[in-house]
Amino acid sequence: MAMPCVPLEEVTEYHQTSGTTGQPIYVPDTWQDWEWWTESWCYILWAQGFRETDRVFLPFGYNNFIAYWAGHYACEKIGAEVVSGALLNTEERLLKMKDLRVTAFMATPTYVLGLADGARKKLNMDPKEWGIKRILCAGEPGASIPTTKKRMEDAWGCDVFDHIGATEIGAWGFECTSKPGGMHINEGLFLIELLDLETGQPVEEPGKLGKVVITAFDKMAQPCIRYDSKDVAMWGEPCQCGRTFRVLKGGIQGRIDHITKVKGVLFSPVAVEEVVRSMPQLGDEYELIVDKVGDIDRITLKYELAPGCEGQEKETETELARLLRLKTNLNYEYESHPYESLPRYQVKAKRFKDLRNNH
Ligand SMILES: [Zn+2]
């Protein structure tokens, strides 16, 4: 457990990281920290058009995943109405959304797609007709990947927005309604530095990848000073919305520990997701496995054909090979799996597995 930088009696909450690797880390917060978290989420909500007239649904288990707890309180703070979707299964959540005519909800990109799928299959309804106006994503990078964002927006017939945050840091970035193809950083509450991946020198020019290093100005119980987020990103152009907060082009480009060398080429799994989600004949789920055959790296892409596209393996794999070659400069092995046979995830998807010994 972390050592608080305030007397223990000032700590009012512990939160836990929701990361998928290693031991969970417990992060203490004072009441001031918790109010600060809520305030940082108010910036996100307001920039994405959430108002006091919204009725916002939170279809998550209210466990240790801090993002939507902060989202819950921030909705209340801006005067919106909050509806909890805890302790319900997917079908019950869908019925609640429809019956209560919610105007917005928050979920991981994987679950946004899963809910739409459930509405069509289990309720035999098109969720586009439910009048949802906006969806706020967290937990995975999908909402910043244009093709995944488009799948979600097409499924629900509304805007989908992303944000960036972490338990140890706070919610430090958000997309606005102008959708600048990236995310504003909240420079009112955070200092963000991009550092060159090799030299560690500050990166100022747009379009060059750097490691994201973050300082939160007001965090008390566990301060966050020049924290290495292990994310990589690049600066973008100023946004049309008029906010002066700088924009990270495309949001987070990937995790340093996911960017790995395969066959000597720098490889980011996010690039594969962009290709998979751009092809309408493919289902939403896929898996990416890197292993070795003898001394040679091998990448296998497991995919599902969408319903109605059965038997199209050959032309699909030819098209995948062409697009992935262009995007990642690598060749892949392909495995077709029946629709809905690959794992489905509600919180954090684990679609990328590196099975080589040296990782
Ligand atoms: Zn903007």
Description:
- With 359 residues, the protein is an alpha/beta fold.
- The chain folds into two domains: 8-186 and 243-254, Rossmann fold (3-Layer(aba) Sandwich), CATH 3.40.50.12780; 260-354, ANL, C-terminal domain (GMP Synthetase, Chain A, domain 3, 2-Layer Sandwich), CATH 3.30.300.
- 25% of the residues lie in helices and 29% in strands.
- The protein contains seven helices and 21 strands.
- The chain has helices spanning 31-47, 66-78, 90-99, 109-122, 146-156, 269-277, 313-328, and strands at residues 11-16, 26-30, 55-58, 81-84, 104-107, 134-137, 159-161, 163-166, 170-174, 182-185, 190-196, 210-216, 227-233, 247-249, 254-255, 260-262, 265-267, 282-293, 296-305, 333-337, 352-354.
- The strands form six sheets. It has a five-stranded parallel sheet, sandwiched between helices. The chain has a four-stranded antiparallel sheet with strand order 8-9-10-14, covered by helices on one side.
- Helix 4 links the parallel strand 5 (104-107) and strand 6 (134-137).
- Helix 4 (109-122) packs parallel to helix 5, helix 5 (146-156) runs parallel beside helix 6 and helix 6 crosses helix 7.
- The longest helix is centred in the first third of the chain and has 17 residues, at 31-47.
- It is globular, with a radius of gyration of 21 Å.
- The model has no long low-confidence stretch (mean pLDDT 90).
- Bound molecules: zinc ion.
